[in-house]
Automatic annotation (TrEMBL):
Pfam families in the cross-refs: HTH_1 (PF00126), LysR_substrate (PF03466)
Keyword Transcription among UniProt keywords: yes
Entry protein name: LysR family transcriptional regulator
Classification via InterPro entries: LysR-type_TF, LysR_HTH_N, LysR_subst-bd, WH-like_DNA-bd_sf, WH_DNA-bd_sf, YidZ_PBP2
Keywords: DNA-binding, Transcription, Transcription regulation
PROSITE patterns: HTH_LYSR
Domain HTH lysR-type: 11-68
Family (UniProt): Belongs to the LysR transcriptional regulatory family.
UniProt KW Hydrolase keyword: no
Family annotation (Gene3D superfamilies): Periplasmic binding protein-like II, Winged helix-like DNA-binding domain superfamily/Winged helix DNA-binding domain
């Protein structure tokens, strides 16, 4: 039982930071500057990492460096491990945002970046100028083991889902939105009645749609189910912000969050339409964005500060 601890004790954990920056920068000189060491010291760290993993990690290509397949696997892992270590050693009874150098790592959709990102970035620049914000964009596959995923980050922003109903997860309401239909203004259907039967035969742009079937993990699924529509998906994209651009100039239709739709419609020549049946008394069609975190962070003063900041900024939307 003591073997893992003995192995860990024999490792130079400073190499974690070197590994993270080398994989981020893909350049020894820039990684050295980020870490605050000399270029020879960073080169020596890369040599040690190559020996440890028995892999080149960075290989020369077209005048620069590219990650090896193993390095691509390590890149996400080292980000989570470093973030967890920073939280561990940064935990205390007091958090001074103006003096802190802590990093916060969030899992977030590109749509949520568009809604909340500007306010969050500006607030951190004013109130916690030394804090580093790391945003990882949501991919549908992240839900496979949400417990392990969220343990390695500070939290995620996402609507409630059955897979989040776990005793080790906490959450707080941030803001609401709702689904609307988005069509090109030149599309005749944009100015006609859009019944579920009509929508069922129209071509769709759908974010985070798998190649086969339709995933219950995607937040948009409940709205399709409510409409009674199985979309004829012509364009699949792992992005919400890309959807309006893929509707523009076509006869396609998409379900889009209203905050995003209203923001881009005029510039792209699009029309925003209500979903058939409206929101209804049960709030169907409403999107409730929440901030989720692991219970281990309940009493972390820095994390409590982050949670309160997110709630405050969401209330101002």
């Amino acid at each position: 039982m003591r073997a893992p601890s003995t192995h860990l004790a024999n490792l130079d954990l400073n190499l974690l930071v070197s590994l993270r920056e080398l994989l981020r920068e893909r350049n020894v000189t820039r990684a050295a500057a980020r870490i605050g060491v000399s270029q020879p010291a960073a080169s020596a760290a890369l040599s040690r990492l190559r020996r440890h993993f028995d892999d080149e990690l960075l290989t020369r290509h077209a005048g620069g460096y590219v990650l090896t397949p193993l390095a691509v696997q390590l890149a996400d892992q080292v980000e989570g491990v470093c973030a967890a270590a920073e939280r561990l050693f940064g935990t205390g009874h007091h958090f001074d945002p103006r003096a802190s150098r802590r990093g916060f790592s969030l899992l977030i959709a590109d749509y949520t970046v568009a809604v909340l990102g500007t306010a969050l970035s500006a607030a951190l620049a004013r109130r916690a100028p030394g804090v580093e914000l790391r945003l990882r964009l949501v991919r549908e596959s992240f839900s496979a083991d949400i417990g392990e995923t969220i343990r390695l980050i500070d939290g995620m922003i996402a609507p409630p889902a059955a897979r989040f109903d776990r005793p080790d997860l906490r959450s707080v309401d941030l803001f609401t939105d709702r689904w609307v239909l988005l069509l090109d203004a030149a599309n005749p259907a944009a100015h006609q009645e859009l019944t579920p039967a009509r929508l069922a035969v129209m071509p769709w742009v759908v974010p985070f749609a798998p190649e086969r079937g339709f995933s219950a993990a995607a937040p948009i699924t409940r709205q399709f189910t409510r409409l009674g529509v199985e979309p004829d998906t012509r364009v699949r994209v792992e992005s919400y912000l890309a959807v309006p651009h893929l509707v523009a100039g076509t006869d396609r239709v998409a379900l889009v969050q209203e905050r995003l739709a209203r923001d881009v419609a005029a510039g792209l020549g699009l029309v925003v339409r209500e979903c058939p049946g409206g929101d209804g008394e049960d709030g169907a069609g409403t999107i409730c964005e929440r901030f989720w975190w692991h219970a281990d962070l309940d009493n972390d003063p820095a994390h409590r500060w982050l949670r309160s900041l997110l709630v405050e900024l969401s209330a101002e939307l």
